[in-house]
Amino acid sequence: MKIVIIGASNVGILLAQQLIAEGHGVSIIESNYDLAKKIAGELDCAVLHGDPVSPRVLGDAEVNKADYVVVVTGNDKDNLLAAINARGLGARNIIVVIENEDYHKLAVSLGFFNVVSLTRLAVIQIHALLKGMNIANLSTILRGDAIFYVAIVPDRMNGIKIKDMRLPSDSLIVAIYRGEELIFPKDDLEIKTGDEIVIFTRRQTIDELKKIFKH
User: Fold this and answer.
1) pLDDT, tens only, 174-193
2) Residue 195 belongs to domain with CATH number
3) Model confidence over 42-53: pLDDT tens digits?
4) First to last CA, the chain
5) Per residue in 99-157, pLDDT tens?
6) b vs e for 130-163, b when ≥16 Cβ sit within 10 Å of the residue's Cβ?
7) How far is CA 125 from the centre of its chain?
8) Shared domain check, 88 and 169
9) How many domains does the chain have?
């Protein structure tokens, strides 16, 4: 796959290293010249120095030709603006990383449903550890293709109980966000329109999950 990473934050660099190791084509946009130069010397990928929210820079990075664009500058406002501009240039699959929970709803309201909230993931992981469920160990079991997928419940699925949901066998619902409320799922819990379902799954099941939660 061709993946454009907007921002050489700690998350962005670690992601780039993993994707490069898996053989994907990676391009990184970074505004800090010294950091961009350092990364270019250390990673086997294209590095473009420039303003990550600039349509010209995004165009030079060919975000419209990327299989995925991951926006992870470390600044939520820049992330949203970069995502909006990338979408305007024809980017198809945009993943927006949010650190401040206040921006999560804004991102969704702007039409970005592939939003990764670092705060929410931390809460989920801590709760899982308290219950004796180590998500990191699950990742190892799934041999590196494990990911979190966040689905928005459409109107037609309103009222369905967790136990009646027909998800792929290798998919696990680990949390549900209902507005500001964090809910940990039980079999008899009914999902509601607009709920954000956090699913731990395999990368290859994403297309199937998209069909299940299609709006």
Assistant:
1) 889 888 788 888 889 999 99
2) 3.30.70.1450
3) 999 999 999 999
4) 26
5) 887 888 888 888 888 888 877 777 766 666 665 555 555 444 444 566 778 888 999 99
6) eeeeebeeeeeeeeeebeebbbbbeeebeeeebe
7) 16
8) no
9) 2
State the residue range of the domain holding 92: 2-112
Using CB atoms within 10 Å of the CB of residue 111, give its burial: 0 to 12 exposed, 13 to 18 middle, 19+ buried. Answer: exposed
Half-sphere exposure of 28 (CA within 13 A, CB side): 31
Q: Are strands 2-6 and 25-30 parallel, antiparallel or unpaired?
A: parallel
| Token pair belonging to 37 | 């130069």
- Give the count of alpha carbons within 13 A of 124, CB side only: 23
Which residue in the block uniquely carries the two structure tokens 């603006």?
Answer: 81
Residue identified by tokens 């921002």 is 7
Helix-strand-coil split of the chain, %, nearest 5: 40, 25, 35
Give dist(CA 211, CA 167) in Å, integer: 11
Specify whether the CB–CB gap between 155 and 193 falls below 8 A.
yes
> Are both 172 and 91 inside the same structural domain?
no
Which among 151, 8, 146, 120 has a CA at the least distance from the CA of 72? 8
Looking at the structure, do residues 78 and 123 belong to the same domain, yes or no? Answer: no
pTM confidence score: 0.68
